[in-house]
Fold this sequence. Notes:
- With 653 residues, chain A is of the alpha+beta class.
- Chain B has two domains: 31-38 and 49-193, no CATH class; 244-392.
- Chain B is built from 15 helices and no strands.
- In chain B, helix 4 (71-90) runs parallel beside helix 8 (136-167), helix 7 (109-132) packs antiparallel against helix 10 and helix 9 packs across helix 11.
Amino acid sequence: MSTAIPSARRRASIWLEFLGSMNLAITLLAALAVSSVVGTVLQQNKTYESYIIKFGPFWFEVYKALGLYDVYSAGWFVFVLGFLLVSTSLCVYRNAPGFVREMRDFRLQHNARSLRAFAQHAEWTVALGAEALSAPLENYLAARGFRVRVKPQGSGLLLAGMKGATNRVGYILAHVAVVVICIGGLLDGNLPLKIKEWRGEVRLETKPGILISEVPGESRLPASNPSYRGSVNIPEGASTRDVILRMRDGYFVQALPFEIAVKDFRTEFYDNGQPKSFESDLVLIDPERAEPLEQTISVNRPLLYKNFAIYQSSFTDGGSRLTLRVWRLGGTDALNMEGVVGGSYKLHGPEGALTLELKDFRLHNVKSAPPGSGKKFVDIGPSFIFKLRNEKGEALEFENYMLPLNQDGREFYISGVRNNENLPFSPLRFPADAQGGVAGFMRFAGALRDSAQRARAVAQVTSAGPSGARTLGETAAALLERFAAGGFAATQEYIRTRLASLPGEQREQVARAYITLLQDSLHALYVNLDLPPMPDVARQQQFFQDAVDTLGALPDYGAPFYFELADFNQLQASGLQITRTPGKGIVYLGFGMIVAGVFMMFYLPQRRVWLALSEQDGRTQVLLAGASNRDPLGFAREFEALRDGLTERLQRL
Amino acid sequence: MSASQETLIKDFGKPSFWSALTLFDWLWAALVAGGAAYVLYRYGAVMDAYETGILMGVAPLLAGTGWWWKPFRTFALAVAALSLCAVWLYGTQLSNAETNFFLQYLLASQSAVMWMSALFILATLSYFISLFARSDYAGQIASALTWSAAASGLIGLLVRWRESYLIHPDVGHIPVSNLYEVFILFMLITALLYLYYEARYQTRALGAFVMLVISAALAFLLWFTFERAGHEIQPLVPALKSYWMKIHVPANFIGYGAFSLAAMVGIAYLLRARAERVNPQGLFATRLPSLEIMDNLMYKAITLGFGFFTLATVLGALWAAEAWGGYWSWDPKETWALIVLLNNAAWLHFRFTKGWRGAPMAWWAVGGLLVTTFAFMGVNMFLSGLHSYGSL
Lengths: 653, 392
């Protein structure tokens, strides 16, 4: 019976019904909430390796297929969001016209009979004509914020008042705002980039550690790209025309339509070493501008230019120039070298080539001050961080301080070492000599490694003994050799195996004698060096003891060199974030709409009142009735006040 | 006749909102305006345009709140007087806190917070006594204690604000920057919101329930103070140095406070609903407000929370655009704020359009507190992100 067109129309209307239905909207709100949780529990946009380590290869692939590593731009998430937008739009589309009509409609069709059916109503009889009452009553409502319409009705009048029409405007604003915000957000999102990537027009660069200039064209995005959020580190005095967009396990290089230079970068610190502020003097050179734009930015004070914003987000070393003295542990002289933070340098170690990678330089190192110093914090001066990588690619990380640290009245140069970036540095202390440097210690270490000097020391120590000097000498030489090669651990091991056959008590006795022998030999070795003397004997003795402690731990240090920081020329890099957000204005408009809308909806409820006047024999029957679309309890109170005020006035007539 | 008609019209028009204000109302407004003017005169030189704007906005807000809710004026005046007294006693020496009797035992930030803690505990006990012993007198005491506790808390925060500047002008900042400070803010706002509704609905029976959530927060605050020395004033990280903090955080905590209030009323609702079935003559069925009132109160609290939480999230987004380089980064804190909003939006839609009332909505409001608590605390404890200022 039915023709094709109406059935298609009906089908469409069923669809509209479904898409605009409240059930769907609420389901979508819940779905969006639940799926948003995923991205907060699972850290987003980390490297694929870290996910593989965390989840294993199988689940890694499953989660990857579900897009869980970048949930908020996963297809299904965007789909849910889009669905919610359609639903919200349809809801507004279907309800708004009715609301607008309602805002204009004063409901003048009511009469005394229908008004008496309202929960809130009251009646009076007044000895005055309806015409005479009309204006005062109209004013009564108007003074209480009602817009009023008057209509003659039967033998009298009907006054209809309405306030809070903006309640409906609030509804429209709040719901349209959701759509507006999402559209703005979509403009600022990376959906176009995702599509390009999916179509194979661009490819994510995943090789680590290559220069920006080496990145191939397929991983470069043109300056015409409408929206992005990238970051870049610019050393002081340098400039860039590119930013890096990090995504998943790689990045794109985004060209900027202008050049950004960092003229100067400054940091300020609190007493406790925490950064107080950091700011950059920027110069923006746009071919479209006659003059370059100069502005200082800091955290919370970005540079806004066209639809770009340039933020101060971090700082790092920008290639500080370090002058190092390289001490070969066991040698006596140092070589000077120059290096730049970020650079790698080949060195020839005793066990093959090593690569020195200079990682970072820190001008300030604030630590808790020792108790009793009267201060809470103390700056122990500059340090630099480096890695030493062997031919197999294994690396240890070191942190060496430039200035000696005072500990219990003695001075030490501290070098921290670790084999894992998640561990704290374990420190090795190099005692400062009479001149305040490490040369004294280094000469001692050199003498220990030198068999001729060891032999001389052993001869000096054992020559005093009248008998058994030969075996004693051999033992002393062996102990010293073990100590030189393997430190405390190797010496202890040597003594243990050598004395294994002795019974317990005797073993301890002999072991103690061995240690005294080693101590004496080391002391002889030290005295032979004839180092510049310390101010007093106690300090001299203390230096010897500290040096022995360090020498004993030296084989575990992991590096055949000690790098002393002799001089530096700090160069910082300003970490900038550069965003292009063409949709920001739209989003902010949406923000304003949603806040205004929500408060209008909740705090400006729609209230309607009617006053029906019917005149008979010069007396007028006044009927007041009211209704509200929200908050019945609140309205009941308001109605009471309205009623009482009217009673008071009508009685006075 | 026409003259008398005119007087009639005039008479019916009165009183308008403005003419209903009393002398004391105007005095109050003048005092607030005078205070704001003095601040501007004294500190205008070191305030930026935004801070001046915030001050200009806060003054009418404060005056209006006093007009709308009269007891608030007494509260505000007492807090202002005592805080100024503390500022005066301090002078420029932070160490006065150790020598001056009034500072040491009453007004120094830490002392005021300890008073707040003691008063909140007493208030909780009094509300329970009032509920179980059916004693209205205990209820009055409980209200007075809650007012005093809130006042002590606010004095504690205001004096702390001053103390931070006494440590060093560089360290000075509004005390809403870490977990310790915002917990005090949370307790204080929740208590004030409750007191407002208590007067409006003429019932003290809900105090015991609302005080439970405040007591829980208090337990955490004390643990945080004594175990983690959370009360120490720390300088701000650069990202927090912004006028946005002054409006974003308080707006957020009005939201948190209102949602907590709704949840606690939800619990009371469920107890009464059950009691009406099981034991209609029992305590809960007779002492607690009617289901209709509680349902209405729950709705009021959720709308208030929703409004302010929306505002706070928008303010947060605007701030993020200045500090983190984007108004939205799907940072866990942002995302959970969105989840809280979505959850409450769904609640409101159910009520408006489906007309749902009663127990399911009360259960939902109680469940909502879990979501809200996770957004407030859980995110900082279990998830990492940009918003790490409030971490434990």
